[in-house]
């Protein structure tokens, strides 16, 4: 239980069992007998759910999410506009398989700071040097699985010359055979094949979730390949004009961005 801004106690789903016991006791005083299971189902309905089994699954999910927040994936960073609304990190039983995988989940439960579910985007990404791969063709692979994904999930790769100066990028959006995943899917491989320009300085890669649902990823690999491996994106073209560098801005801290609609 947590105190509200008015000082009253607000119940969360983790209080369900104690709430059920209180309900049973109150009804017993009024000569109404119900089983503990019936009481749990009634409490579940107070949280807008059909039954205790559904609420119990949400409680286990919430406990696992809390445990994940106490850990960090070495070398990986989560990026999202409102990261506290996501559950992400290591899932030790991905899709009930008993196998370990990285996970990104967004449920869309209210309240939320996203105006539209189409704006929801979260990614687990790693940043490395592009120097060892300059002038070479690179293949990035990973195994993915999804559940209830509304707007897409897959892997992506980007090569930068400097912050804001992107040289090469692919998220498989234009690749119909190996493109984005939607809905439910069992483990399936996705790969990006990209040419790393000689001017590349840094490279980012990872997997993302757009909209609601869950995506799992395991076994990322990076390998240099020859030209027999077809590119999954358009080849890099040297720009005809000088790159647009990001200039210093807001040095007096006078401009702010309101993250809450």
Kindly describe this structure.
The chain has 261 residues and is of the alpha+beta class. Helix content is 16%, strand content 37%. The strands form two sheets. Strands 3, 4, 5, 6, 7, 8, 9, 10 and 11 form a nine-stranded antiparallel β-sheet that branches.
Morphology? elongated
N-to-C terminal Cα separation, in Å?
Answer: 27 Å
Strand content: 35-45%
User: Can you write the helix and strand succession as a string?
Assistant: EEHHHEEEEEEEEE
Quaternary arrangement of the chains shown? Answer: single chain
Instruction: Please report the total strand number as a whole number.
Output: 11
User: How confident is the prediction overall: mean pLDDT?
Assistant: 83
In terms of structural class, how would the helical and strand content be classed? alpha+beta
Low-confidence stretches: 1-10
- The total count of helices amounts to 3
CA-based gyration radius = 23 Å
Largest sheet: 9 strands, antiparallel
In short:
The chain is α+β, with helices and mostly antiparallel strands and 261 residues long. The chain is 16% helix and 37% strand. α1 crosses α2.
Q: Any descriptors?
A:
single chain, elongated, 261 residues, 11 strands, 37% strand, disordered N terminus, nine-stranded antiparallel sheet, alpha+beta
Present the secondary structure layout.
Elements: E1 2-3, E2 9-10, H1 16-29, H2 36-46, H3 52-69, E3 77-80, E4 87-91, E5 101-106, E6 121-129, E7 137-162, E8 165-170, E9 181-195, E10 202-210, E11 213-225
Antiparallel strand pairs: 1-2, 3-6, 4-5, 5-11, 6-10, 7-8, 7-9, 7-10, 7-11
């Amino acid at each position: 239980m947590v105190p509200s801004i008015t000082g009253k106690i607000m119940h969360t789903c983790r209080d369900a069992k104690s709430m059920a016991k209180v309900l049973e006791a109150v009804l017993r005083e009024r000569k109404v007998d119900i089983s503990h299971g019936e009481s749990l189902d009634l409490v579940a309905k107070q949280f807008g759910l059909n039954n205790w089994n559904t609420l119990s699954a949400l409680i286990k999910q919430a406990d696992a999410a809390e445990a994940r927040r106490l850990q960090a994936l070495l070398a990986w960073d989560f990026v999202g506009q409102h990261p506290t609304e996501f559950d992400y990190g290591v899932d030790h039983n991905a899709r009930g398989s008993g196998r370990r995988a990285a996970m990104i989940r967004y449920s869309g439960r209210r309240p939320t700071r996203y105006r539209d579910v189409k704006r929801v985007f979260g990614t687990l990404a790693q940043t490395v040097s592009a120097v060892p791969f300059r002038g070479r063709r690179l293949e990035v692979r990973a195994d993915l699985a999804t559940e209830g994904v509304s707007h897409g999930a897959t892997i992506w790769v980007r090569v930068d010359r400097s912050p804001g100066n992107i040289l090469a990028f692919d998220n498989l959006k234009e690749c119909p055979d190996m493109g984005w995943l939607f809905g439910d899917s069992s483990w399936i491989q996705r790969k990006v094949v990209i040419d790393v320009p000689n001017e590349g300085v840094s490279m980012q890669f990872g997997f993302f979730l757009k909209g609601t649902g869950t995506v799992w990823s395991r076994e990322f690999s990076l390998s240099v390949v020859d030209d027999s491996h077809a590119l999954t994106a358009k080849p890099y073209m040297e720009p005809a004009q000088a790159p647009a560098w990001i200039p210093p801005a807001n040095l007096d801290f006078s401009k702010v961005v309101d993250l809450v609609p």
